[in-house]
């Protein structure tokens, strides 16, 4: 069977990683690249750098990766859908919910595979965590809390921290809990002189009763990527920077020191750092996209799921503006 012909549009920071991984994944051939601003990272190698999406389409591709700025997702995605090309769009799906809805509808109407690059779902620590939750290792899940903090990335120019980093946490939380968001309350701050928010604190509730908390910012000198899931039997801590997963078990040993035992809700049990395989998340994401195009499996982040995440992100921003909790419209 011939390899799938892949086109890549957008050769910036994410584009260069997509280009590298596409070349590494079995069954894929990177045959065309495009970026109106050139190729600062040398992604093209021996390929001609095309000027835009129409030239990319003309190269005769089976599937495409769109790593262009968020504001261009709708234009590029609609052109690829019209041409009948399966497409992975970087997250978020689009700059606004109406634009995202148009993309969902365009790819569905053509019967195409449309995916969104919420790469955290493919982090081995989170994939292992989701399976363990599904297997009942934690019992009933009570809370999912995330912390995603670090310095401002120069690559971001057209959205704030909610639609950039925050959408990772919204997506992974709903995916881990296998439940949609029911409501959110948020506060944001703008400290760096840019027009968009650079810090957000969000509390929320999922439809299945799990409560959530997300701290996200571009203002911290330390980089942190943590997901903490607390439940009936203890807590899992996933560090997605290192792909480490640790289980903190509720203890069964009585606490003899009464002054400590008085304020501990549960006693401390064993702490286990779990041994898991650690493939590169971007490679796993591309393998899933390839297999979805081939009809072998379907564990991509669909455009409909990406749209759900964007709707929650916009509710977060509305809550921050109004000072009121926002219910999520399904």
What can you see in these coordinates?
The mean pLDDT is 94. The protein has helices at 13-24, 53-58, 73-82, 97-110, 124-134, 162-177, 258-261, 281-293, 303-322, and strands at 4-9, 28-34, 49-50, 63-66, 86-90, 114-117, 141-151, 181-189, 199-206, 211-217, 219-231, 234-239, 244-250, 268-274, 326-327. With 330 residues, it is of the alpha/beta class. It is globular, with a radius of gyration of 21 Å. It has 9 helices and 15 strands. Helix 3 packs parallel to helix 4 (97-110), helix 4 runs antiparallel to helix 9 (303-322) and helix 5 (124-134) runs parallel beside helix 6 (162-177). Helix 1 (13-24) links the parallel strand 1 and strand 2. The longest helix has 20 residues, at 303-322. The strands form 2 sheets. Strands 14-13-12-11-7-10-9-8-15 form a 9-stranded mixed β-sheet. Strands 3-2-1-4-5-6 form a 6-stranded parallel β-sheet, sandwiched between helices. It has 2 domains: 4-118 and 283-301, NAD(P)-binding Rossmann-like Domain (Rossmann fold), CATH 3.40.50; 121-279 and 310-327, 2-Layer Sandwich (Dihydrodipicolinate Reductase, domain 2). Helices cover 32% and strands 30% of the residues. One of its GO terms (molecular function) is nucleotide binding. This is Dehydrogenase. It comes from Arthrobacter glacialis.
């Amino acid at each position: 069977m011939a390899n799938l012909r892949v086109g890549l549009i957008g050769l910036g920071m994410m584009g260069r990683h997509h280009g590298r991984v596409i070349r590494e994944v079995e069954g894929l051939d990177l045959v065309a690249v495009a970026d109106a601003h050139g190729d600062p990272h040398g992604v093209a190698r021996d390929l001609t750098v095309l000027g835009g999406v129409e030239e990319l389409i003309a190269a005769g591709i089976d599937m495409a990766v769109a790593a262009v700025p968020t504001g261009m997702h709708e234009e590029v995605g609609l052109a690829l859908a019209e041409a009948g090309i399966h497409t992975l769009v970087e997250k978020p799906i689009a700059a606004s919910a109406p634009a995202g809805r148009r993309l969902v509808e365009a790819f569905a109407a053509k019967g195409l595979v449309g995916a969104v690059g919420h790469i955290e779902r493919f982090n081995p620590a989170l994939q292992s965590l989701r399976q363990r939750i599904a297997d009942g290792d934690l019992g009933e899940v009570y809370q999912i809390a995330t912390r995603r903090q670090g310095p401002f990335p120069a690559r971001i120019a057209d959205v704030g921290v909610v639609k950039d980093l925050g959408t990772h946490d919204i997506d992974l939380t709903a995916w881990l809990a296998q439940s949609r968001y029911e409501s959110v309350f948020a506060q944001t701050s703008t400290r760096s002189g840019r027009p968009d928010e650079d810090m957000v604190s969000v509390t929320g509730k999922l439809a299945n009763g799990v409560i959530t908390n997300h701290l996200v910012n571009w203002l911290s000198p330390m980089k942190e990527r943590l997901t903490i899931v607390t439940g009936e039997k203890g807590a899992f801590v996933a560090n997605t920077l290192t792909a480490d997963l640790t289980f903190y078990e509720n203890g069964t040993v009585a606490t003899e020191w009464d002054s400590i035992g008085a304020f501990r809700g549960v006693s401390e049990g064993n702490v286990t750092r779990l041994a898991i395989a650690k493939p590169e998340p971007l490679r796993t994401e591309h393998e899933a996209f390839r297999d979805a195009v081939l009809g072998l499996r379907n564990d991509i982040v669909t455009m409909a799921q990406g749209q759900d995440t964007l709707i929650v992100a916009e509710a977060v921003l509305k809550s921050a503006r109004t000072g009121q909790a926002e219910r999520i419209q399904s």
